Amino acid sequence: MKKTIITVIIILGLILLLPAISFFRWVFQERKPIGIIILDKTVPTMDKINHKSLMWVLTNARFTKNKGGSYSFRKDYFGFFPTRPLREKGWKQKNLRLTDIMEVTDSVDALYYADTYGVFTNDWYRGISRSRWSRKIYGGLNNTDYLYFVEMQLRNKLCILEYNTMDNPTSDLERYKIKERLGIEFNGWTGKYFSSLDTVINKDNIPSWMTALYRRQYFKPWTFTKPGIVFLKGQSIIILEEGTHLKNAVPYIISDEESCKKYGIIPKVPFNGWFDVIDPKENLVISKYQLQTLPEGDSVLNVFNLQSEFPAVITDAEKHLTYYFCGDFAKNEVNYLTARLYNMSKLKGIFYSDKENDFRRFFWLYYRPLLNSIFSDYYATLNQK
After folding, report:
1. Reduced to 3 states, what is the DSSP secondary structure of residue 70?
2. Residue 140: which domain range?
3. Over the stretch 142-175, which tens digit does the pLDDT of each residue have?
4. Is the backbone of residue 219 left (phi > 0), alpha (psi -120 to 50) or beta?
């Protein structure tokens, strides 16, 4: 009996000791001060999921604010801020100000636009029907946001922009300017994987306006029940269903050997977030999306001048200081308490598995190492100046 109690005590001690050791190893890592403008206009809840994993990566890698201290996902960003108590639906905004543009862009080192979509009435107020497009409360990339990006580029500073920077509700003028500045073409097509296209099983994720749009365009009912991918552009919709159009509905991000070596990413990883379809023009493609299309799927895509492979991450070919992530990359479910533990990515089996279709692999084996590599390389160049 005593041996059993002693064994249990030892096991419990190790369980408590290992996180403590990991925390102290994190504490004594070298701090890397770097000032970053972080913009997230899509924050309808307190969990701030659209930039939370970005802050996790920065904190875990010991990137700190220039004045010291780790980045806080709760307050160290520009955009939409829900206020407590949530039931009162109060909010405030912290915007980039044109009058501060020279001072701010001189004083910071990098810019990351995580999400500019914004917050709409359907997202913010409970009980409102999600069957229709709703009114914007706050959001869209504006001229001031664009000018901050321009000034950071002119100063040869790191700029990272994500999916939806150019799409609704950003105005046509700002969309045109940001496309020209990035050196890409975007004709409006966006898409997303759905684990089920069945509106009964997946009614929370497939809004009725989407099925209504399909009926108006094709003059037939929505009868899809399997996994699939939905493409949207204005009032146009494309459905690719597994078995009919796709061998496997899961989109994969594919990276060549050179990119894997440079950024520490894996060659193939599943992605289930929203993405957009761009033409990179002269930009360097780091990774690409690959859809597992069948001949019927290729035929459907060809009608709309789309292909089964298109860019996932690009960077400018000359300086590698401007990146565009063609997907909702920063939106990942992470436990922020683990950000202050050392070497968390090694705990395979707890946070992700070996299964190819485990979507958690995207954060641990792609987004985290990609972002860490980009910021680490850039930080090294800052210290050489």
Report:
1. strand
2. 19-384
3. 999 999 999 999 999 999 999 989 888 999 999 9
4. left
